[in-house]
Design brief:
Length: 200
């Protein structure tokens, strides 16, 4: 029995392409969602310092929900750099270094904590979904291989059946011709009955 190879499914080749496409989308969304609030604040149109929650927190949660931990980390890094785009914050007079650094990093750490909580859940679900997708692809590949071998075996069985049917017909023809020859020989060798003699 010959074993035919089946071509690789697209699910075996696609993961790298899917990851690259996902990273490009992540970068594009991060630039738009982080750049818009930063531009509004840079133009002095909105003072996000007066808001109870900075918009970058919502951006971090959104990217973490879509892209997992990678999206959360990128949002926090981008948001922190854009927040300090105008320069490193100066320590006010009368504020100790410990209090200053705690105040300085409190907001980015809050973004990071919220993003990691959401990102861990998203990454776990994405990893589970990818494992199930790979299992389905391997199962379909095995199913295709089995189906091709089944078709090969079915075709071979049909050929064997036709061969056997042909051999059976030949045997029947040979047997019938043999019987005819026997009958003809019997007719040829059978003695004819004697005719009665005419009376004087």
């Amino acid at each position: 029995m010959t074993i035919t190879s089946t071509p690789l499914s697209s699910a075996h080749v696609a993961p790298a392409t899917r990851d690259d496409h996902s990273r490009l989308l992540l970068l594009a969304e991060a630039m738009i969602l982080l750049g818009a609030p930063a531009l509004l604040e840079w133009l002095n149109l909105v003072d996000f310092g007066q808001w109870p929650l900075h918009p970058f927190l919502y951006v971090t949660i959104l990217l973490a929900a879509q892209y997992g931990i990678e999206g959360a980390v990128l949002a926090v890094l981008g948001g922190t750099l854009l927040s300090w785009l105008s320069g490193w914050p100066e320590r006010p007079l009368g504020v100790g270094y410990q209090d200053f650094f705690m105040t300085l990093w409190l907001q980015p750490l809050t973004w990071l904590s919220a993003g990691l909580l959401v990102g861990i859940v998203t990454s776990s679900r994405t990893r589970l979904l990818r494992e199930k997708t790979d299992q389905l692809a391997r199962s379909r590949a095995a199913e295709g291989l089995i189906a091709s071998q089944f078709e090969f075996l079915a075709e071979r069985n049909r050929k064997l059946e036709r061969t056997l049917a042909g051999l059976g017909t030949d045997d029947a023809d040979e047997a019938s011709s043999g019987d005819d020859e026997i009958r003809l020989s019997e007719v040829g060798t059978r003695r004819r009955p004697a005719l009665p003699k005419p009376a004087n």
